[in-house]
Amino acid sequence: MAGENLKDALAGLESGPETTPSGDAAPRGAAGDDARHPSVQALRTRFGDAVLHHAVMSGDEHVVYVAPERSAELLRWLREDGEQQYDLLKDVTAVDYGAGRPLEVVYELWSIPHRRQLRVKATLPLDALVIDSVEPIWKTANWLEREVYDLFGIHFEGHPDLRRIMMPENYAEGHPLRKDFPLRGRFSRAEQTRRSLSMDVTDNYTPQELSVMEEDPDAAGVTRLSEDGAARTHAEASGSLNPSATPRRPNDADDYSLGTSGSAAGGTQGAQL
Amino acid sequence: VSTRTVEYLVSRSPELTADGRLIRMPVLPQGMEPELEGEHMVINIGPQHPATHGVLRLVLELDGETVIKCTPHIGYLHSSFEKLGEYRTWNQVIPLTDRMDYLAPLIYNCAYAMAVEKLMGVEVTERCKVTRVICMELDRIFSHLLWVGTTAIDIGAFTVFLYTFQERERIYDLHEALTGARITTSSTRIGGMMADLPPGWVEAVRHFANTLPRTLDEVETLLTHNNLWVGRNRDIGTISAAEAVSYGLTGPNLRASGVAYDVRKDRPYYDYETYDFDVVVGEHGDCYDRYLVRMEEIRQSLRILQQALDRLPGGPMNVPDPRLILPGKTDVMSDMESMIHHFKIVMEGVRAPVGESWYSVESSKGELGMYVVSDGGSKPVRWRVRGPSFINLSALPRMVEGHLLSDVITVNASIDIVLGEIDR
Question: In chain A, which residue ranges form alpha helices assigned H by DSSP?
């Protein structure tokens, strides 16, 4: 009996959190008292309808839900207004509650002069994952937004360099931190191996770096880049941005034939996807 | 907050001007080889390189020996800890936390447990609080000692490395006595610690705290006044206070630029407001100030450590809450209810209410934020780590552009990164 239970517990490691049915909205918490936080009151008077909800979480954490189309304007005001001065953007991240519910973009703000915390959230439906970038307001948003883009697939309008950051640029399996992404990835182990073996040297450089090397291929003795190498990278990168691409289902039976694949298999992958 | 002005202690040397500034010879005088001007070169450092402190890869665009553009490429160690966390119960996440910053594992253990306890509304016991403060300060010293040693090696001073690693070995022993492991400590549990302090541990920590300053003095004799050390660090990688805040720098990197922001003072947790210590603040925001700030922070941590050891109370380590804490082993072996209780906690895990919480602690590298979201289950819906190294590293291009290639190594070392936490 104990063995059975141990098996169940181990199988539990393969399953994610039990999400509530899709009918329920994401938990927002009860409405908080605006008077407890001066910035929330100020936001309400200045932005009116753009402030959708105010909640207090875990005792002292103030969360403000705002309309995504006005979030950048509102955050800029929070950064620049003399009474607010949220000069430290601690974090930009996202939360996926699963079951087709909208994603939340989370901005954790801190004001060093006023010693005040504020969390701003914007909710984005899955079919419109676009929000304005705050990189022009806080430089630290550059990498944080790249991370959210990479792992959740949210596009930040106006970001100067929106590339993947954790995963390779030509990663085509999707966005790993989404709830519909399986723990071991979308491709079979063999397909993943084949892809990593067929990576080109150009896949490891940004387009800007490639352009410098193209101008003077002999500089620094770096590998000379072929025209088609660069072209292929570009095609694959744009393919990976397409969310509607149907992933290839794992099929281990015919996939462990690395010896016969090589670069020829790499060439056909674009068609399969 | 007491501000300490860091003074430059530069030895009198013919290479320095009257006001103490270093004279540096131009490497390639303008116009000497006109045909080389304007030609840019791209070089790649890493991911396998001893001076990038892990699998960091930097692609540099150079004009002669001057860095025009620097692009860090990360992700070579990406293990998707945050995704893995969604597939683990609240307590099972703890072993993932110390694998992020393996240079200060106990700080990560504590920060995670503190975030989940806040979410659950659990107040840990007084003994547990003080123990965690001891653990966190011990690991701040642990991490800073590694930083001094490896940075000195990067710049060419080997001896310091031997001194600091000998001291780190003693902290490893303390880790081992407390948790059974030297690096992957996993010592906290939701609601308390894995075990109470072993006999003799407090005395061992006190002995360590009493004897470390001697080594620190020796390290400072070797570096602080050293002409080469000052020359390689001073005015290198300078970042102003306003820019440092905009780039989200925290910890010693921010304080070296003159901003007295320390989570332990600005949003105190675990009674840090009652400990007597100073926030160390630099002035110039260069590599030398970052060195001075970290050296002084070790001494301040020792002060906190001594006070925490003095006030360590008796009593239970874990909260008396059967929903969180396992029953005693003797009870489990002799009592049926205790066995069922034990079984349920291990197999089903601890449950957290619907909600979310953010907990910030001052880690050795900067502000470490743990953000946990729960939908009422035994597993997190989202577990997010605001890693200080990740954010500090994003300011590296800004700090090295315009400097020489050899300074890239110095600046990269000075911001104190750990790739396990950057790539997560």
Answer: 2-12, 38-47, 71-80, 141-152, 189-197, 207-215, 227-240, 252-255, 263-272
Q: Please name the residue that has the structure tokens 């010879």.
A: B25
Mean pLDDT of the residues in chain B: 86
* pLDDT higher than threshold 70 for residue A15: no
Q: Residue B307: what residue type?
A: Q
- CA distance, residue A196 to nearest chain B CA (Å): 13
Which tens digits make up the pLDDT trace of B205-225? 999 999 999 999 999 999 888
Tokens, residue B165: 């690693």
| Distance (Å, whole) CA B69 – CA A134 | 23
**For B56, which residue in chain A has the nearest alpha carbon?**
A166
Q: Do B87 and A183 touch (CB under 8 A)?
A: yes
Q: With left for phi above 0 and alpha for psi between -120 and 50, is residue B251 left, alpha or beta?
A: left
**Distance from C-alpha of B139 to C-alpha of B136, rounded to nearest angstrom:** 5
What residue in B sits closest to A15 (Cα-Cα)? B87
CB contact under 8 A, A91 and B371: yes
Asked if B380's CB is within 8 angstroms of A93's CB, the reply is no
CA pair distance A152, A161, nearest whole angstrom:
17
Neighboring chain A residues of B423 at a CB cutoff of 8 Å: 166
pLDDT over threshold 80, residue A217: no
Least CA distance to B422: which residue of chain A?
A: A166
State whether A29 and B84 contact (CB < 8 Å). no
Chain A hits for B246, CB-CB cut-off 8 Å, are 87, 138-140
Contact A19 B381 (CB under 8 A): yes
CA distance A220 to chain B (A): 6
Of A140, A166, A213, the CB nearest to B78: A166
Query: Which one of A28, A88, A116, A123 makes the best mutation probe of the B interface by having the most chain B beta carbons within 10 Å?
Result: A88
Burial code of B179-189, b = ≥16 C-beta within 10 A, e = fewer?
beeeebbbbbb
Task: Please report, as a single letter, which amino acid is at residue A221.
Answer: G
Given a cut of 60, whether residue B186 has pLDDT beyond it is yes
CB-CB under 8 Å, A93 with B42:
no
Say which of B87, B367, B423 has its CB closest to residue A14.
B87
Q: Closest Cα of chain B to A68: distance in Å?
A: 21
Phi, psi of B416 (to 5 degrees): 60, 80
Report how far residue A51's alpha carbon sits from residue A43's, in angstroms, rounded to the nearest whole number: 7
pTM: 0.82
Single out the residue of B363, B367, B325 nearest to residue B346, CA to CA. Answer: B325
Report the C-alpha gap between A74 and A46 in whole angstroms. Answer: 9
Banded model confidence at residue A250, pLDDT cuts 50, 70, 90 = very low
Residues of A in contact with B38 (CB under 8 A): none
Burial class (CB in 10 A: 0-12, 13-18, 19+), B285: buried
